[in-house]
Amino acid sequence: MRSICLQLAAFICFYSGSAQLPFKYDNTSYKAIYLNQVSKLMDENPGYILLDVRTPGEYSDTSNYSNLNMGRLKGARNIDIDSISSHLEELKKDSDKAFFIYCSHSQRSRRVSKLLSENGFKKVFNINGGMSVVNEADNMAFPDKNKFYISNTRYVNISATPACELILHDPDLLTIDIRSKSQFESNDPINQNNIGRIKNAVNIPAK
Q1: Does the residue 168 lie in any domain?
Q2: Which range marks the domain in which residue 53 is found?
Q3: 51: β partners
Q4: Distance CA 109, CA 142 (A)
Q5: What pLDDT is stored for residue 3 in this prediction?
Q6: What is the per-residue burial (b if ≥16 Cβ within 10 Å, else e) of 175-196?
Q7: For position 107, which CATH number holds?
Q8: Are 120 and 30 in contact, with CB atoms under 8 Å apart?
Q9: What is the DSSP string of the chain?
Q10: Domain count, the chain
Q11: What is d(CA 55, CA 21) in angstroms, rounded to the nearest whole number?
């Protein structure tokens, strides 16, 4: 029997989180760009620098927090956000080049983008949504995804729509909900955790 492990809360967080992402060109110091712009802008900026500002564990898919192991973009240089300041002078040697910056959800990358732009970097692009969006994107949303995306994980992350398609059309599929029993049964003391569950799912808490 094939199995699929779904965490319903993750889907809700993904869609609610997307609504909070910065708008394209929402500031004057750096540019927030969408995945469908990445390839084109990189082609327009030969010699660009691709910067991954996550932790080394996230970058190599070896983080102790498995939900942060989302793969990476090919050719990216990894400098943890906590180390950016100590690398600033080194990075300034390429300040005339375009910098494409990403993290897991585009929060850390926004901070780094702002820091670089305030230090004289003229072409700074923050990749909107980070690896969480890259993971969910198809080739239409992220042209050349197969060219850029690298992952060392042994599983595949899918978005809500294809997950629902699998559940609806594969009678042998086992859906496992890894939330706590209280969240699964919608009687958690934190009301925002009571968001229902997928029909016929089996509850096997991760902890």
Answers
A1: no
A2: 21-150
A3: 77, 101
A4: 19
A5: 47
A6: bebbbeeebbeeebeeeebeee
A7: 3.40.250.10
A8: no
A9: --EEEE-HHHHHHHHHHHTTSPPTT-SSSSEEE-HHHHHHHHHHSTT-EEEE-S-HHHHTT--SSGGG---EETT-EE--GGGHHHHHHHHGGGTTSEEEEE-SSSSHHHHHHHHHHHTT-SEEEEETTHHHHHHH--TTTSTTHHHHEE---SS----HHHHHHHHHH-TTPEEEE-S-HHHHTT--SSGGG-----TT-EE----
A10: 1
A11: 21
Contact 71, 134 (CB under 8 A): yes
- Average pLDDT by consecutive 10-residue portion of the chain (207 residues)? 43 40 56 95 97 97 90 97 97 96 96 96 96 90 92 77 84 92 94 92 91
Closest CA to 79 of 119, 108, 105: 108
CA distance 183 to 194: 6
Distance of CA 142 to the CA centre of its chain: 13
Q: Which amino acid is at 155?
A: Y
